[in-house]
Design a protein that fits this description.
single chain; mainly alpha; Four Helix Bundle (Hemerythrin (Met), subunit A); 2 domains; two-stranded antiparallel ribbon
Length: 222
């Protein structure tokens, strides 16, 4: 039996979108009641659920017979950073190409802010200088309002993209890249022969980096 199936991932994607919607409504209610820290946290959680929907939707087109793929999918579904990053995917898919670079840059800044603000918006903490940090004193009203607005933007874009498309079918190179850590990819690219190998592919009209990394590794292993 498969560890994960395409059907289960599509169901998860649908459920995650519905839960993201519910979390956003709750965050909006808390914002109106001036519970800014809790509104911020639930809005970030809504963004994560939107990201989970995107991860599941995209994973449904992968080679789920490969346990390395299913392990990577499960890890991404549990990882806060992966889910926040993935929440911006549908929005970027719907962004005009001429505006894409600017949109990606803005998204990366927001992702860093959301990751830093998630924990302080919910939990008390004692800092190294002995100061106690309290969520209600950390989250400013404008920050809570902005994150609720961002959660709505991500959800609206995901609802526009995911239900109206089919999961993309991936190649062996895509799936290989998907299962590798950043450190492993950097190690491959740092190999003394990779630069020459990749440059030759570019000159031959094959500039795709994922394909190049996959071909380099499988060639080396052959």
């Amino acid at each position: 039996m498969k560890d994960l199936s395409a059907e289960a991932l599509i169901k998860l994607s649908e459920a995650a979108l519905a839960n993201a919607d519910a979390l956003l409504q709750e965050a909006s209610s808390l914002l109106l009641s001036k519970h800014h820290a809790r509104a911020y946290f639930l809005a970030v959680t809504s963004i994560e659920e939107t990201g989970k929907a995107a991860i599941a939707f995209n994973a449904a087109g992968r080679n789920l017979d490969d346990q390395r793929i299913t392990k990577a999918v499960r890890n991404k579904l549990l990882n806060h950073k992966s889910k926040i990053i993935s929440a911006f995917g549908p929005s970027l898919h719907l962004t005009e190409k001429k505006n894409l670079s600017e949109a990606i840059e803005a998204a990366m800044e927001l992702i860093s802010d959301l990751r830093r603000g998630r924990e302080p918006s919910m939990y008390t903490e004692i800092l190294t200088d002995g100061t106690v940090r309290v969520p209600s004193e950390i989250v400013r009203p404008v920050a809570a309002k902005d994150v609720v607005r961002l959660a709505k933007h991500c959800l609206v874009r995901a609802k526009s993209y995911i239900p109206n498309n089919t999961s993309p079918q991936t190649s062996a190179a895509n799936d290989f890249f998907y299962t590798q850590s950043s450190a492993k990819i950097q190690e491959i690219m740092a190999h003394e022969q990779f630069s020459g190998f990749y440059l030759a592919r570019i000159k031959a009209g094959s500039p795709d980096l994922e394909e190049a990394i996959y071909e380099f590794v499988t060639r080396a292993a052959a």
